[in-house]
């Protein structure tokens, strides 16, 4: 176990009708002028937007809006948000949606007081050291972005999808009401669960030795996904199932699982390359890639980790042949993803085979990726081919 | 799952040599005059006190000390601390020790600006609404008090041991260096582990339905205790074992496990009555009580919880006879406590049999205790007799 600091500054208000805290929470930061960021019109159709604006108006808070933020949020939306913030003297950003909306809101918040172009942060030309406060209302279980300082944004012109981190980008508060996720369609629900599971895997498959407690916590959250995914696919309005998955998604990426160890974010890097070129769902991309990554990187030195996953999470029987049991676990993961309607191959999703090499090269643009196993361009290409 | 708010304001600095952050962290709160609270002279003998005062002096911070805080900290120590704080214009309290020292420091911090007697808070005659900031350096894995707003203090005159809670009593930061726990003697190490496991049980045995994720997280921490207790008893200087137990102890009572459900703190209430009359170790008292409480409260409606504990944590084979498996789990808990040298009966610890009735009455002075199963005085007496 490595040294670490536990510091979770985001307050989570979890459960039915927790939106009631909204106005008071925004006022805590001395804010009076709010930019509401959102993606699809679902939140208007279903009344959530009205509920939110009523709460703001009740307390005399000004608001304006930036809608239509894309599923893989674009730097152009960030620029537009910055423009509105400056024009309207915005002092608080409320992101209502999933990871894309929240990430876009973070990028806007960090760019308002920066003279250059927001894309500079993603190219590592500048560091975010000032941000206006943000809060979130989560409408999709997937991201974890509601409790961390990460943001991922796409640039269509340059065909890049890049990440930025700053401790000042953590939301001040996040409202997690499971009922707001009832209307997420089946495919997106499944893709969200795959995203959550990927976040857990990316911390579980760590090169750091002696992470017993952290591994067991990770397995606990994976069990939640496996237990409640079939229920939520069957009964989208099941409060308990939506709540358990929403809660697991938050814990999966609020930094708890990452404490005291290095993670391995290679799959996210690879998937970002895929969805930079083809507009496929992030979670679906990860569901395709992960079982293939697992098979590719498993070797005689790291079988134990895959064996533990198989036995502790996927219910594979204990066995002297650890490798066989580990492979059985990976197969069960694949079967699970299939069972919730996620694709098994990149070729099913419109990805073109002759783009794989470009993706592989893009993934390693800053050098080798991965920590559990270092991957070069040729390794990434091999995984992409297995996944095609 | 009930609605909840996740808000963990204490920063945890975990690992070797994290004491390096001390001065800067204290200064963050504008403090210049520090009261160092501690219990035994162990921290002086082993150099930790010197390390700490060097860090304070280096940054020009004034300090004075309150040593000799008792294992069940007394209200007289709180009063003495308050006197020193007022006399020396203390603006920060640093607790160096385990739960007793931290709890005493919290009670002092909350009483400095109160005109009445500190015991008023424990009798619920007054509420703590102002406190000077505190930080902690943990030297024992047990309490969880380094990451919450609870304090338990004893009054020898009135033979009471009572608890107080206030959100403003959360430490600003806590330093958790596993090496500081190397010299904890075997019995206290074991008692600390029993205390941690009791905290987990008291949240696990919840009457709230649908707590799947929370239950699996609790089981993860119990597994850590079971795995590393024998190692740490054998090799007290094993960094990994000390680290895993220290980390589990923190997570067991930093409110994470309690989110979304009611707990059942009956065993703590009962144990407080025992140790109010007889100076037995808190953890040892809990290790005696818990298996008996489990057997007493288990019935046909709640067998599943005990069955899950047996199968998921104690490795009991799955069985159609859930009750038998559950009882086997409780027996394994008892065997585990014996294996680390903890007593099995109150009669072994100097507790007098004719005091049991008084303890039972004291435990319910504010009404029935427990939520998983409500206990009246006669139930508490029955458990105490089983445990004698």
UniProtKB/TrEMBL annotation, chains A, B:
UniProt key word Oxidoreductase = yes
A single Gene Ontology CC term: cytosol
Instruction: Specify the domain of life of the species encoding this protein.
Output: Bacteria
Coiled-coil-forming residues are none
Against PROSITE patterns, the record matches this protein to: ADH_IRON_1 (PS00913)
CDD domains recorded for this chain?
A: BDH
Tell me which residues make up the Fe-containing alcohol dehydrogenase-like C-terminal domain.
Answer: 189-388
Q: Which residues form the Alcohol dehydrogenase iron-type/glycerol dehydrogenase GldA domain?
A: 9-178
Q: Tell me the InterPro entries matching this sequence.
A: ADH_Fe/GldA, ADH_Fe_C, ADH_Fe_CS, BDH-like
**GO MF annotations in UniProt:** alcohol dehydrogenase (NADP+) activity; butanol dehydrogenase (NAD+) activity; metal ion binding; methylglyoxal reductase (NADPH) (acetol producing) activity
Keywords assigned by UniProt, alphabetized: Oxidoreductase
Family from the record: Belongs to the iron-containing alcohol dehydrogenase family.
- Protein name as catalogued: Iron-containing alcohol dehydrogenase
What lineage does UniProt assign to this protein's organism?
A: Bacteria, Pseudomonadati, Deferribacterota, Deferribacteres, Deferribacterales
